[in-house]
Design brief:
By secondary structure, the chain is mostly helical. It has one domain. About 55% of the residues lie in helices and about 0% in strands. Helix 1 packs antiparallel against helix 2 and helix 1 packs parallel to helix 4. It is elongated, with a radius of gyration of 13 Å. The two termini are about 25 Å apart. About 25% of the residues are buried.
Amino acid sequence: KTGSQKPATLFTPASVSDRSDGKIAHLDGLNLSRAWCWREIASALPESDIRAVIARRAAATHLDAALPHVTGDYMGEHWLASFALLALLADD
């Protein structure tokens, strides 16, 4: 049900309440992983397909939520860069 953006949890970035908490910081990784997957899905669809448009939008939303936090706290920065690269290079 991509067109109706359901389930909503796949289209809404996870909220990270404390990036210094090693477990909660994994939610930034989840957002980057989702961005990667959404970009891969979009690239597999025709450009004009509404599902591709929605997938690209979801990818951008997840990237915007997580990318600014790839650096700044060791709990995330020592591994988030690899997920950020996967997300950024997904449709190349």
